From TrEMBL:
It comes from Streptomyces prunicolor. Belongs to the leucine-binding protein family. The lineage of its organism: Bacteria, Bacillati, Actinomycetota, Actinomycetes, Kitasatosporales. It comes from the Bacteria. Keywords: Signal. Residues 33-392 form the Leucine-binding protein domain. Residues 19-39 are annotated as: Disordered. This is Branched-chain amino acid ABC transporter substrate-binding protein.
């Protein structure tokens, strides 16, 4: 997911020592305490899904400590709010890499923020795993459609990419919903524009017609001009690339104008807040999201139960499970490094760099399915789900994979 596209350059960072000999990482019991950073929007725009990421990591860390996943090591969470802003995300990445106890980070939520953070983590040889970034270029380079090249070996994700999500949505719109004329809108951001573009080309390839295209700005509230264009276009579907903050307003204004066609979006729209804010206007709208509905996964039953019992804020449904698995991958990598070093944690920057290598070799059953990464750092879990608002709640209507 993405909010802003600006990429801020970052100089190489000096990595402070990290490991078993750091005096500030020793607990009173003599065990080593390592920190897992979390970067996400924890307030304001997109905070519903951002908080789901934070608490997904927290539950994984609590489970690791309770069940002694790494003997002699305890983990804690350091969560920083990026406010969905690239500059803030970059500053947070610098704070993580400058903290000698931080061994890796989970996040960010937004792909545009990730663009500003990747180089910081790479310079520090620190692993970064996003549970939600879907922009293909983050792992496969800016020319991913024609020539894939991995930009940073320290960056991974447990979410699949828009290259698959956009095509999956187009296929369902054309073959599942039998829609023939789509109006495509995006929010001009990396995630939204990229996803909308992939849907656009996929829908046309299947034989559909694009009734028109338009762009909005994040933060806009009056979409009357857009509604008029859509109404006059004769479209039987609106596809929106962007976040729920704008799409919830667009669908309300569409329905109020008598345009009774569904609005279809990506994982940036899949949040309970969308339905709560749009109200009855959301009925029948659709969104794709990564993976399988977490509530239906037997392995995630305890996670869901714990999240609810703790009364955690935010929405775990979109990325909570993928955040849990991202944190688990870092924790399991620490154990692999420790085991390979005669039961001791390496000193200095060796721990961080070796954790990166161990994460690359991840191969375990997580609560969302098998956790593994290909040569680009992309997840091996390619499953996607289409959800539709039915009786005021998101209901899964199709789960599968898309190969193009």
């Amino acid at each position: 997911m993405v909010i802003l596209t600006s990429v801020l350059t970052t100089g190489a960072l000096t990595l402070t020592a990290c490991g078993s000999r750091d005096s500030d990482s020793k607990s009173d019991s003599g065990s080593t305490t390592l920190t897992i950073g979390v970067d996400a929007p924890l307030s304001g725009e997109n905070s519903t899904t951002g908080l789901g990421i934070q608490y997904g990591v927290q539950i994984a860390v609590d489970d690791a400590n309770k069940n002694n996943w790494v003997p002699g090591v305890k983990f804690k969470v350091k969560a920083l709010d990026d406010k969905a802003q690239p500059a803030t995300g970059q500053s947070n990445a610098t704070a993580f890499t400058g903290d000698s106890s931080v061994v890796g980070a989970v996040g960010p939520l937004n792909s545009g923020v990730a663009l500003s953070m990747q180089k910081v983590f790479a310079s520090a040889n620190m692993v970064e795993i996003s549970p939600s970034n879907t922009d293909p270029s983050l792992t496969q380079g800016k020319n991913w459609a024609t020539s894939k090249t991995r930009p940073y070996k320290t960056y991974f994700r447990t979410a699949t990419t828009d290259a698959l999500q956009g095509g999956f949505a187009a296929d369902y719109a054309f073959n599942g919903l039998k829609k023939k004329k789509a109006y495509v809108v995006d929010d001009k951001q990396t995630y939204g524009a990229g996803l909308a573009g992939i849907f656009n080309s996929g829908f046309k390839k299947l034989g559909g017609t694009i009734a028109g295209t338009d762009h909005v700005n994040t933060g806009d509230t009056d979409f009357s001009s857009l509604v008029t264009k859509i109404k006059n276009s004769g479209a039987d579907l609106v596809y929106y690339g962007g976040q729920y903050d704008e799409s919830e307003k667009i669908t309300k204004q569409l329905k109020a104008a008598g345009v009774k066609i569904p609005l279809f979006g990506g994982d940036g729209m899949y949040a309970t807040t969308y339905i709560q804010t749009a109200g009855k206007a959301a009925e029948g709208d659709l969104a794709t999201s990564v993976g399988v509905p977490v509530d239906t996964l037997p392995a995630a039953k305890a996670f869901v139960s714990t999240y609810k019992a703790k009364g955690y804020k935010g929405d775990y449904g979109a990325y909570g499970g993928y955040s849990y698995d991202a944190a688990s991958a870092i924790i399991k990598a620490v154990k692999a490094v420790k085991d390979a070093n005669d039961g001791k944690l390496p000193d200095s920057n060796d721990l961080r760099s070796k954790v990166v290598d161990a994460v690359q070799k991840s191969d375990f059953e997580g609560i969302t399915g098998k956790v593994s990464f290909d040569e680009y750092g992309d997840t091996g879990n390619k499953q996607l789900t289409v959800y539709q608002v039915t009786n005021g709640a998101w209901k899964a209507v199709k789960t599968g994979t898309f190969t193009g």
